[in-house]
Amino acid sequence: MHAVKDSLLSAQDMPIQKRKHRKNYAETRQRMRWTKEMNLEIVHCYFKAIISSSTSYRQSMHRYWKQLYPDTTFTEQRIADQKKQIFCHANNTNTLSKRGHWLTNLEIEAIKSQIINKDGKFQVEYYPCNKLKGSTTHCGKIASPKTNEAEVIESCLSIYNLIKTKEAPDGVLLDPTKISKSLAGTYKEGKDYDVMDEILGKGLNGQIAVVRDRVSKTDHALKTVMLALFNPNEIRAWVSLEGCSQFPNLYMFNKIDGKIELHHEILKKAVTLADVINDRMGKLREYPSLLHHFSLYVLHGLLEASSTMHSKKWLHDDIHEENVMLQPQQDPSDSPLRLRMIDFGRVKNLKEDRVVNDIQGIIRIFTSVYLTEKFNDVYDLQKNWETKLDKHSDDFNLSYDHKQELLALVKLALDVTLTKEEEDLKRIVSKKLKDSREEAPEILEDIAKLIFPENFPDENMDVTDGPCVQEINYDIFAVGK
Ligand SMILES: Nc1ncnc2c1ncn2[C@@H]1O[C@H](COP(=O)(O)OP(=O)(O)O)[C@@H](O)[C@H]1O
Ligand SMILES: [Mg+2]
């Protein structure tokens, strides 16, 4: 009876308690409004999901989403609905005014081609290409609007005005010893620098090219990001990390033809951890103590890099094997190996010192180095870490001590949520590394010889088939095999 009566009451007639509840609900709904950034991420997740999963793309799209926004409670259905909405809007909306936080077909197309380029083997059809005609990604281009001309003109003029009032340049030169801009204050391909044949790597944003400054004749790396997809925090974070040895230095950034160019330091002879794991660890895996030390070394290096970023209030949010590089010794005063973190394309402000996303990325790299277990996603990691690592430890004949240590470390790392816990973990790993080095002071050199045999031509190693291990006496490391 009461229930029926309540349902007939208007909001004003409701008892205070109930009105309050409804208000809260409305507020919650408001807070969950989708932003442009979230919509871009949904499309990213969608393409990643259809590449990586042939069966339930919805499930894996949701998993990717949860990696990016672990605090949201959206269901699979909600994410799938949102994806559908984004694509509908892209096909139906041709005006700036209606666009708001929705994406254009060209923006979607750009994400699609990045992801497919990276994989190189996938073709996705989700809307007829002729629908692209008349699409309105004006960012960095000259528009010829068929509708809403006045509005397009105004949006363009407001940017001109902003540039004028802020006296904003197109770019900022951070290291004039590496980059020689022209007298006119520009830095252009074919005039001030040349693109060389060498490609350093490929990521979601395309290739990282080697370019040569025409005046200094020195080479540096060039990353190009489409303005429509550019995250300004990439530059903010990179600049704030200037001089921190775990990262390459940024020399200059520049907006040119609707793209942002990021000129930066080449990490000489560096290889991604993905390549190290896939191609360079065969011999290392035959020596339990070397493998143990190297895995701890990587874990420690990752924690050093991430905690440096966290101390500057940045969350990397994209720590994976392609975004970490290992460098062999550059000169005799250097350490035999160096771990460098790259790619700030997804950097976010660190909120409430919560570092979970980065730590999960770190754990997945650590277990991948140690036992080739990457985990499918964070859910797989959280749910199956113990069973999977227990099994792999046995498959890889890890000693009892090493296995227990690995399980304990992963358990500890999974409990890390805040920066201070990350510092504690780093200290623990640092102590273990120190102990291991005390037992075998040359251990890192020996590891470097196995991973980068080409860097040790005098060591009489067969570079094509990997190093000749008999040349190095590792008997001491066989303990615990
Ligand atoms: N400074 C660098 N020195 C050497 N190689 C690099 C450098 N920066 C990037 N790379 C290579 O290029 C790839 C893509 O670079 P990244 O910055 O991650 O681009 P994206 O944002 O597109 O993923 C990396 O995985 C790596 O192989
Ligand atoms: Mg990358």
TrEMBL record:
Record's keyword annotation contains Transferase: yes
Boundaries of every Protein kinase domain copy: 194-481
Transferase is among the record's keywords: yes
Organism per entry: Octopus vulgaris
Region (Disordered): 1-24
GO molecular function, one term: ATP binding
SUPFAM superfamilies recorded: Protein kinase-like (PK-like)
UniProt lineage: Eukaryota, Metazoa, Spiralia, Lophotrochozoa, Mollusca
Keywords assigned: Kinase, Transferase
Gene3D superfamilies membership: Phosphorylase Kinase, domain 1, Transferase(Phosphotransferase) domain 1
Positions in coiled-coil regions: none
Pfam families on file: Pkinase
This protein's name: Calcium-dependent kinase 4
